[in-house]
Amino acid sequence: MRRLEVRFRPMPAWPHPETPFHRRRSRSTFKVSLGATLADLERELDHLGARGIIIGAGLREEDIRDDGWPRAGARVPPFPGVEVSFDHPEHGRLVYATDVCEFWEHNVRSIALGLMSLRAVDRYGITRRGEQYAGWRALGPGVQARTMTIEDAWRTLGEAAGIDVLLVPTVGLTAQEIDRAELEVVWREAARRTHPDAGGDAETFVQAKAAHEFLTKALG
Question: Which CATH superfamily is domain 145-219 in?
């Protein structure tokens, strides 16, 4: 199996429907280590030909190593939701997310097992073109992060949040001029305003999410 480039990113706001606490699966759901879970997830993503793999979790920046993986002894995130997104060679950007378990590590495993089950559909010959993955495409095409500039991304995120980020000059704007804490404040407000489950516009949400991912990567 090829070594995949997988990076964890902080997810300061949960942009998906939230599972009520009393319906979450308990700490006894899984008895497998995080290392084994990540190995299983990598194997499934490798089968899919995944690229640009991002695991969003409620970790802090300081909980993530320079190589994009969680540090040993990282604090327990205040919210257990996890989102795995990646580029599929046929179906574009796919997003899988869950907060059904009490612990974020267990939610990573839930996604890994879910991908394993989807692949089993192909194994039994009832699909021919991987149709089962199409239902988990991103909410819309949005603005592709790879075509953005720093200025475009900052403006897009600010407009989605209804915040006048243009008080910061955008001509020739560099990542060093954007404060990380301010970025997260703007993103949280953009997610709150635009997520379809909260009555927002799906395309605007996707554009804001792409802008946030782009700026997060640019900040390093």
Answer: DnaJ domain (1.10.287.110)
